[in-house]
Design goal:
single chain; alpha+beta; Uridine Diphospho-n-acetylenolpyruvylglucosamine Reductase, domain 2; Uridine Diphospho-n-acetylenolpyruvylglucosamine Reductase, domain 3; Alpha-Beta Plaits; seven-stranded antiparallel β-sheet; five-stranded antiparallel β-sheet; binds flavin-adenine dinucleotide
Length: 457
Amino acid sequence: MNRKLIKEFEKMLGKNRVLSETEELLCYSYDATSKEFMPDVVVFPLNSNEISDIVKLCLQYDTPIVGRGSGSGFSGGSLPLKGGVVVSFTKMNRILELDEENMFVTVEPGVINEDLKSYLADKGYFYPPDPASYEFSTIGGNVAECSGGPRALKYGVTKDYVVDIEIVTGEGEIINSGSKAIKDVSGYNITQLMVGSEGTLGLFSKITLRFLLKIGSNSLILVSFDDMDKGVKAAIALLKLRNRPSMLEFMDKFSIESVKNYFKSDIIKIDGTLLFVVEADGSKSDVEKSVAEYSRVLKEFSPISLFIANDEGEKRVIMEARKAISPSLRRYGSLKINNDIAVPIGKIKNMLFYLEGIAKKYDIPIINFGHFGDGNIHVNIMLDKENDDMIKKGEEAKRDILKKVVELGGSLSGEHGIGLEKKEFMKLKYNNYHMDILKNIKKVFDPQNIINPGKIF
Ligand SMILES: Cc1cc2nc3c(=O)[nH]c(=O)nc-3n(C[C@H](O)[C@H](O)[C@H](O)COP(=O)(O)OP(=O)(O)OC[C@H]3O[C@@H](n4cnc5c(N)ncnc54)[C@H](O)[C@@H]3O)c2cc1C
């Protein structure tokens, strides 16, 4: 890296907001993928003007810039693939404005999802997007990846809450994408273009979000089936109800096996071929009615067990079991290819059978769980990191799976984004004409290709 550029950053931001020593840079060289790329320098802006100055300086030095929240991404979005400058948003972590009259909150991008949730909860409000990483991921990262979680079924994902973003473009210009007006069709919808743009179109300096009123109460049902067909039919029957569940999570037989051996509980039984966690929420009486209705529907498909959790302890145990899936997988391999595919609900059964077939074809463990109600399956291909042959088989299995997803009319990624991890597969879904449209959109916001180059395409 050009020492002169580092000196300029130190002059601009002060030495304590610029890191350039190897041991400091290491902390910004990885995310939740197992890949590592060293940045040349890390800078910590405090506002949009500083971000704009950083971008303009990088343009002069033709140096790439990568935005970084907490670095918890699963697709390599925050990795500085070509070195250059990492812009860390961790010091931009203030809640700027609570507009209770209109029910909007404006935050800096480095606010942690959980901090926003609890700030609003204390005032009787609810911010729904709930990625499993909510305790440590940032709102900026959530917006850039359009993150979602179990409650997306009823409450949607991040895109359903973002109304306005202040963006510093690849030319260092500052624009606002939307407004607080409920109806807003003035021009193209730049807000939604930014959501899920994986840090490639600009750097977000301020984000305005909708929020809801706090939910009264909830109950969980843990239900399992010994037959995949029956289980899938039962889940689809729940989704066809006027009063749908707020959450419909599933574990396949391999996840069930994995959790059973890892998570011990006297309260719940993890068993069967297909298992679901179903949530009902709302007022106390609504929850009672929903639980009765869901139980009735589920029983029509002869589950092998059905447990209703009303008290906090029982609900916690169920959610802990759900959370235990990922750590429990370690015994199946030292390397995980983590895929978050999404297919139309009516195709989940085809996909699950296909995944079983692929596991057999390549003779590797493939363990599946996720958000049934959104058709979003977390496919975990478990490998030995010392075994090159097995890794090759894992990569081939990944390609087969993504091809099948496209054939079934699904999406390469439901939550984690394309980043580095899936960019070579974009052509499975999009032709050259479509890819050119994406590249041309990027050029409009970042003509010199300095914002997060090498991601998505
Ligand atoms: C244990 C675990 C569980 C997870 N569970 C879920 C889950 O349930 N659902 C889900 O969707 N994801 C999940 N994730 C993935 C990850 O947490 C999300 O993608 C999250 O939104 C990333 O936030 P971050 O702050 O860590 O962003 P980073 O990883 O730092 O960055 C992600 C992307 O956002 C860009 N970015 C960050 N800040 C800005 C900004 N201010 N302006 C422009 N671009 C920016 C980066 O350049 C990068 O491209 C999980 C990850 C882990 C490790």
